[in-house]
C-alpha cells in the first residue's frame, strides 16, 4: 500500500512539474488532429457518393446503347459496393470496399470508373497522412524552440521535458501506421471505409453532378476556366533532348476546327460544330469536351454522323511526320460503334488538301496511342494502333507539304465526351 501511494505521489509530481507550454502545445496539436480526421471522413464519404453517381451515369450510357450485358455488370457492381460499405473492413486491404479482386474483368468503361475511385481514395489517405506528418513537424519545431529557450533561461528540467517529448514523437514517427495511431489517440479516429451513401438523398446531386468538369460544350478562350488538372496538363512543357530535337519541333500550329470522320472533312462549311476544344500549341496538347448533340447532319449527298473537333498542324516536309499521339479519356467508348474515337488525317497541301492518309480508332480504354511515321527515304507512311496488331500503310512522297489533323469525334446522340490529346516525339521501337 505504501509503495502504491508513493508511485501515485511521484506521478502527480511529474504531471504537475510538466511545463505549462507542453500542455498547451499538446492540446492544440490534438485539436488539429481531430480536424484532419473529420475532413478525411467527410471527403471519403463524398467520394462514395460520387462513385455511386458515376455508376448510375454509366448505366444510363449503356442503356442508351442497348448494352444489356454491360448494364447488368454495372448494376451488380453498385449492389456489391453498397454491401461492402456496410460490412466489416479487411485491415489488410488498402481500399477494402473496392479491392483488386472486385474490379471489372470485362467492361473497360466500368474498370476506368473503378480505378478512378481507387486512385482518388488512395490519394485521400496520402493527403491525410501528409497533413499529420506536416502538423507533427510543426509541433517538433515548436518543442525544439521551447527547449532552446528553456536552456538559455536556466530552466534545465523544463528543457529536459521538452526534449523527452520531442524524442518520443520522433521515435513514434518511424512507425508505418504513425498517422492512423496518432489520430486515434487524439480522439480523431478515421473511418476505415466511407459510410454507405443515402441513395434517396442523391437525386439532387445526380442532376447536377460534375466532378471538375462542365457538361456543356467547351468554349474556347480563357485557360483559367478549365479544371485545374487540365490546366496543369496543357501547360506541362514538351520534353525532348535539345541536342537531338525530334521532328515535331518543325510543326507549325494552324488552329482548331470541326472535323468529320465520315469524309475526313476538316474546318469546312457544313460540318456541325460538335464538341469544344482548347489547344495549347507550345506544349502540343489539346483538351476536347462536350456533348454530341446530333445523330447525323446532311452535307451534300452525304450524312455526317461521326463529328467532333480537331487541331491542325502544317508540315513543310513529309519526312517530319514522325510522332506518337496519345489520347486519354475517363469516359471510354463502350464499343467500337460509339464515341469517343481518336482521329488522325493527313492532307497534301500542294494538291488542294487532298486526303493522303487517315486512321480512326475507338477509344476503348483510358489511354489510346497512335504511332505515326513517314519513312525517311521511302515513300511509306505507317499509322499503328499501339497495343494492338492493327496498323495501316500509305504512300506519301518526300518533301511534300502536309496538313496533319488530330482530333476526337463522337457518334451517339447525347454522348458526353471529355478527352485530352498529346503529341510526343516518336518512341524508338515502331513494332512495340
Q: Key features?
A:
single chain; 432 residues; alpha+beta; Jelly Rolls; 7-stranded antiparallel beta sheet; 6-stranded antiparallel beta sheet; disordered N terminus
Care to describe what's here?
With 432 residues, the protein is of the alpha+beta class. The chain folds into two domains: 2-203, no CATH class; 223-424, Jelly Rolls (Sandwich). Helix content is 38%, strand content 23%. The protein contains eight helices and 15 strands. The protein has helices at 2-17, 20-64, 68-86, 108-152, 156-172, 178-185, 203-208, 228-235; strands spanning 252-260, 265-266, 276-280, 285-291, 297-299, 302-304, 307-315, 322-329, 341-348, 354-362, 367-374, 381-385, 391-394, 402-410, 416-424. The strands form three sheets. Strands 3-4-15-8-11-12-13 form a seven-stranded antiparallel β-sheet, with helices on one face. A six-stranded antiparallel β-sheet has the order 2-1-7-14-9-10, with no helix packed on it. Strands 5-6 form a two-stranded antiparallel sheet. Strand 3 and strand 4 (285-291) form a beta hairpin. Helix 2 packs antiparallel against helix 4 (108-152). The longest helix is centred in the N-terminal third of the chain and has 45 residues, at 20-64. Mean pLDDT is 86; it is low at 1-16 and 208-215.
Amino acid at each position: 500500500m505504501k509503495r502504491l501511494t508513493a508511485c501515485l505521489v511521484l506521478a502527480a509530481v511529474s504531471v504537475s512539474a510538466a511545463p505549462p507550454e507542453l500542455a498547451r502545445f499538446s492540446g492544440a496539436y490534438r485539436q488539429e488532429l481531430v480536424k484532419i480526421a473529420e475532413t478525411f471522413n467527410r471527403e471519403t464519404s463524398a467520394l462514395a457518393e460520387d462513385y455511386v453517381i458515376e455508376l448510375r451515369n454509366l448505366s444510363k450510357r449503356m442503356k442508351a446503347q442497348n448494352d444489356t450485358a454491360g448494364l447488368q455488370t454495372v448494376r451488380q457492381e453498385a449492389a456489391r459496393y453498397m454491401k461492402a460499405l456496410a460490412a466489416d473492413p479487411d485491415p489488410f486491404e488498402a481500399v477494402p470496399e473496392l479491392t483488386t479482386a472486385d474490379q471489372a474483368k470485362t467492361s473497360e468503361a466500368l474498370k476506368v470508373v473503378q480505378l478512378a475511385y481507387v486512385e482518388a481514395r488512395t490519394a485521400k489517405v496520402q493527403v491525410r497522412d501528409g497533413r499529420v506528418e506536416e502538423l507533427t513537424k510543426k509541433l517538433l519545431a515548436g518543442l525544439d524552440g521551447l527547449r532552446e529557450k528553456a536552456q538559455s533561461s536556466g530552466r534545465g528540467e523544463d528543457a529536459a521535458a521538452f526534449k523527452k517529448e520531442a524524442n518520443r514523437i520522433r521515435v513514434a514517427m518511424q512507425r508505418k501506421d504513425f498517422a492512423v495511431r496518432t489520430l486515434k489517440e487524439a480522439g480523431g479516429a478515421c473511418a476505415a471505409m466511407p459510410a454507405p451513401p443515402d441513395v434517396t438523398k442523391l437525386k439532387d446531386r445526380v442532376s447536377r453532378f460534375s466532378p471538375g468538369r462542365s457538361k456543356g460544350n467547351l468554349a474556347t478562350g480563357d485557360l483559367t476556366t478549365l479544371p485545374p488538372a487540365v490546366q496543369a496538363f496543357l501547360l506541362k512543357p514538351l520534353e525532348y533532348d535539345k541536342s537531338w530535337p525530334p521532328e515535331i519541333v518543325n510543326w507549325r500550329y494552324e488552329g482548331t476546327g470541326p472535323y468529320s470522320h465520315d469524309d475526313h472533312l476538316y474546318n469546312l462549311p457544313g460540318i456541325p460544330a460538335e464538341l469544344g476544344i482548347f489547344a495549347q500549341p507550345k506544349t502540343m496538347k489539346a483538351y476536347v469536351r462536350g456533348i454530341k448533340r446530333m445523330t447525323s447532319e446532311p452535307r451534300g449527298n452525304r450524312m455526317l454522323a461521326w463529328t467532333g473537333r480537331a487541331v491542325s498542324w502544317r508540315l513543310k516536309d513529309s519526312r517530319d511526320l514522325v510522332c506518337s499521339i496519345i489520347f486519354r479519356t475517363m469516359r471510354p467508348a463502350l464499343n467500337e460503334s460509339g464515341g469517343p474515337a481518336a482521329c488522325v488525317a493527313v492532307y497534301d497541301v500542294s494538291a488542294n488538301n487532298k486526303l493522303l492518309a487517315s486512321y480512326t480508332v475507338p477509344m476503348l480504354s483510358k489511354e489510346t496511342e497512335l504511332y505515326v511515321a513517314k519513312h525517311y527515304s521511302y515513300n511509306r507512311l505507317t499509322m499503328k494502333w499501339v497495343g494492338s496488331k492493327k496498323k495501316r500503310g500509305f504512300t506519301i512522297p518526300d518533301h511534300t507539304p502536309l496538313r496533319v489533323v488530330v482530333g476526337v469525334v463522337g457518334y451517339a446522340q447525347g454522348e458526353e465526351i471529355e478527352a485530352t490529346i498529346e503529341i510526343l516525339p516518336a518512341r524508338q521501337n515502331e513494332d512495340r
